[in-house]
Write a structure and sequence with these properties.
With 549 residues, the protein is of the alpha/beta class. It is built from 20 helices and 14 strands. A 7-stranded mixed beta sheet has the order 4-10-9-8-7-5-6, sandwiched between helices. The structure holds pyridoxal-5'-phosphate.
Length: 549
Amino acid sequence: MDPNLALYLVGAGIGAASLPGLKARLELSRAKHASLTGHARISRLIARLVPHYEYDEERFFRSDDAPDDITTRRRAGFHRLAATYGERFAATAQLSGEIEDVVSDLQFTSAYRVPFQYSRFVRRHLPAGAFAAESSGVLLTDLDGNRMYDLGGSYGVNVFGYDFYKACIDRGSERVRTLGPVLGTYHPVVAYNVKRLLVISGLDEVSFHMSGTEAVMQAVRLARYHTGRSHLVRFCGAYHGWWGDVQPGAGNPVPARETYTLKDMSDASLHVLRTRRDIACVLVNPLQALHPNTNAPGDSALVDGARTAHFDRAAYAGWLQRLRSVCTERDIALVFDEVFTGFRLAPGGAQEYFGVRADLVTYGKTLGGGLPVGALCGRRNLMRRFDHHRPANVCFARGTFNSHPYVMAAMHEFLHQLDAAEIGALYRDLDAVWNERADRLNRRLRDEGLPVRMANLSTIWTTCYTVPSRYNWMLQYYLRAEGLALGWIGTGRLIFSLNYTDVDFNAVADRFVAAARAMRDDGWWWHGDAATNRSIRRRILGEMIASRL
Ligand SMILES: Cc1ncc(COP(=O)(O)O)c(C=O)c1O
């Protein structure tokens, strides 16, 4: 045979063989979100390339080329705020400063409160205290005796108010005191917890873990074990804890090779689920309904005014239904990660709220009644950790502290109290109450011409900005000065507990408006006529390139 013809035939054969592979790859690419959040590998690469540079004092106030009168106002406002912080938070800041250098978590959170170019200067003058002394009602008290409204919500744990959890821990500890911290056997409270969780989740079996991260790890491991498939699907921007496989982009030093990050609320993603054969499970964090396809809105990424959020309950419920039917059709385990949304959106969590049932559901945070926990509920055929026909083929999972008597007892109190009339009352008209509160605050902000708007998914709120400013992150410092305590990610996530009364809320709204007014008066929202969010980002890119040269 003519050698050229032979080569041609071999080449054509390889081409034909790889065509379906190529098609599948293209389809996978189509199901990726266009942003960096949708491209884990590129985001890791870029994260390694971003150079450190920071503004000196002069540039700090003028990074957007504001005129002199504006920078003078900003400077005066900043130093007034710094003086207030120095007086009001002295003891809290002092103790925080003593340990900051040796507590790696604290170093991280304090460095990443604001965009890195401004971080050191802000830390020096507006130290965020890491300590609190007391909680009561919806208030926290710091070491200086300042009483502040809690909008951090203890990462979402605080659904019913801190006093509720104190009671769960106290009563629970009393109940298990005679057994004490004995592990490896169960205290009888476990039986009650199991029964309640099965009813709440509508599923067949439960396993207990020590954190939400571990509950998610177990869900994925079991899905892989039972389906014999390798890959998990997560949606762009969704947080599922800090285990490597669910956190494939920047932040994880190694690539997560068996994770597909797909576009949320997208037909292209459904197509991938319908056609690929390597997908074991799909993880959904229902919190993403507030901001599909974007990361948790932290202020360290708030370099401009482009943050958006909008919750559409019907659209998200429709998406979950479509996901449900594709997963059923393809025998893919649908996992709802309800570590955050469980018990917050409704007593039955996102499953109840959106009216869609999952095959595996993770819980954590508030379920522990104030103590650390993770739990996984699932269908019997997915939860089994061994194979009757192949006794050596097990799916191993342990954890020294799982089912710890004190945690189980606090959980018991939590679940028991869910039936109490006062708790039932907190859920009544929950969305109507919180949507009306958000509307009310937005009206006030609009009427005063303040460039801030709130978006909410029930009690979970995000602050958005209507101006292309490089300084929107400054609002968190004005809010604190007004006695509003935020979590370390700043204004992007305000978490209210359900026990906020209208009086409490009005007090928060007054302070919020006062903070925004002060920030406006201090000139931070000035922007040039030609400024856009895009022009800000282009400018920052230019600064990065210049700093590398
Ligand atoms: C949806 C979701 N999954 C998992 C986790 C991880 O839980 P933990 O921090 O208890 O490990 C979190 C924590 O924020 C979460 O919000």
